[in-house]
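[Automated response] Your request has been received and processed.

Submitted sequence:
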Amino acid sequence: MKGSNISPVPALAAKFMKLAGIIMVLFTIINSVLLFFPPNLGDVSWQLSFTRQIIEQGVLPIIGIALMFCGYAFEEIIGIAPAQTKVSWNSLKFWIYLLSFFFGIMFLLLIPLHINTEVMRSNQNVERLNEEAVIAQKQLEERLGERQSSLDSLLKNNQKLEEYISREQLSEEQIAELERLKNNPDALKVRTEEIRKQLIKQLEQNTQRALQNTQLAAVKSTVRIGLTSLLLASCYLTIGWSGFTGKPRRVR
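Generated structure:
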């Protein structure tokens, strides 16, 4: 079938597929450059956000390259493709293969970079949670001390105690507890210590749960982004390698 007898519709379809593929690749490159600005390399959160977005949109150039080669294949099918020649630097295919190599190496390098950054963020979160736990425990100790001092002062003053009971409208059990604490001053210290241990235990459990969630989130992110980047790198390197080493053999 001669190219001059070919309907313009298939020929335009091939051109449009190649054009759509080029646009997708250029869109990803431009968007990646814009994501980098303004750079804030010292901020761990910015680094994670940048690498995550780059990797998440890494499949777009693959689709674009696939569309371009679909266009080339369509031209061969309808008989309007130029004669097959060796890939040279001034051909679009050469730059596609070279760009694929670049993307493949980039996504390989992003794997250790993302893992290292994720570890840094996880360490920062652990340090922050530990600091918050120390501050919370200190505040708890201060509040319990103030409560014990206030209650001790109240129990030593009968008039204030009666006013407190009348004002707060305490139940019989609560009044009996106050009477027991009044008759046994050491019981107040014991009760305060029990409350302190209970609250500190609860605080430690909450802190431990938060630490586990932080570490689990870091592991999930590392596995998901790492595997995705590895798959993308494998795909791009395969495209580049197959382009520069010749056509793969057909399996019979």
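Summary generated for your ticket: Helices lie at 8-36, 44-56, 59-78, 92-155, 158-168, 172-183, 185-244. Residues 92-155 form the longest helix (64 residues).
If you did not submit this request, please reply to this message.
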